[in-house]
Amino acid sequence: MRGRNIALILLAAAFFGCGTMQTGQQMLISEEGQKSWITDPGKFDTENAKAFVGLSSRIKTETGARKDALKDARKQILDSMGVNIKRKIREVITSAGLSSNIIDPGVVMDDMSSFVSEGFVKARAKKYYVQKWKEKTPKGWQWYYKVYVLVLMPNKSFDEGIKQSLKQKAAEIKDEQAKRNIERAVDLMKKMETGDW
Q1: d(Cα 20, Cα 10) in Å, to the nearest integer?
Q2: Phi first, then psi: what are they for 62, rounded to 5°?
Q3: Greatest CA span in the chain, whole angstroms?
């Protein structure tokens, strides 16, 4: 009898102890399972576009979390573009036999940053996945959202953005030889376009 009472006490302690959440513990409220595009956005790359997934921080409103996810996607796009802009400019300079100081990748990247605005990214958002969470705090339950967004960035936008930046730089330059060299670089870029970045 005594062994049975101890077993019941242990069982009740285990049941009630596991059922309570400690401060700081989080629980996903959303019922949908995580989407495959979140973990493998490369599957959604197409011949014409490259896929990026943005993730929000923990935000109290769904609208705020969506904006934060778009901001993260934009940062990823710009980071990827930065690496590829340097590569593309090196290819153009080498192929055209130009001086390496004729085109500054940093200037082109600044122009691309303006080109890839938040509105530009939002217009290319194809899918959202919203998670609603709750977290136990000393004050009670706090609710927040985490949002994932799939953005398809057109390959042509990358090439077009670089060409527009170079054309703008050529228009600003007073030195005729430097201007012709940049125009030659733009023409060469047109011939080298692969539609990939």
Answers
A1: 16
A2: -65, -40
A3: 102
Higher pLDDT, 195 or 53: 53
**Higher local confidence (pLDDT), 125 or 92:** 125
Q: Number of C-alpha atoms within 13 angstroms, CB side, residue 136?
A: 8
Q: What residue has token string 């005729």? A: 176
Rounded to two decimals, what is the model's pTM? 0.72
Residues 113-139 have pLDDT tens digits of 777 888 888 889 999 999 999 999 999
C-alpha closest to that of 83 among 158, 21, 149, 147 = 158
Please report, for residues 26, 33, 131, the alpha-carbon distance to residue 149 in angstroms, rounded to integers and kept in the order given: 22, 15, 12
- The kind and range of the H/E element at 129 are strand 125-137
Cβ contact 133:26 at 8 Å: yes
> What are the structural domain ranges in the chain?
23-192
Q: What is d(CA 38, CA 51) in angstroms, rounded to the nearest whole number?
A: 10
Residue 11 pLDDT greater than 60, yes or no:
no
Question: Across the beta sheet with 49-55, what order do the strands follow?
Answer: 26-28, 125-137, 140-154, 49-55
Residue 137 DSSP class? E
Looking only at the bridges linking them, the beta strands covering 140-154 and 125-137 are antiparallel
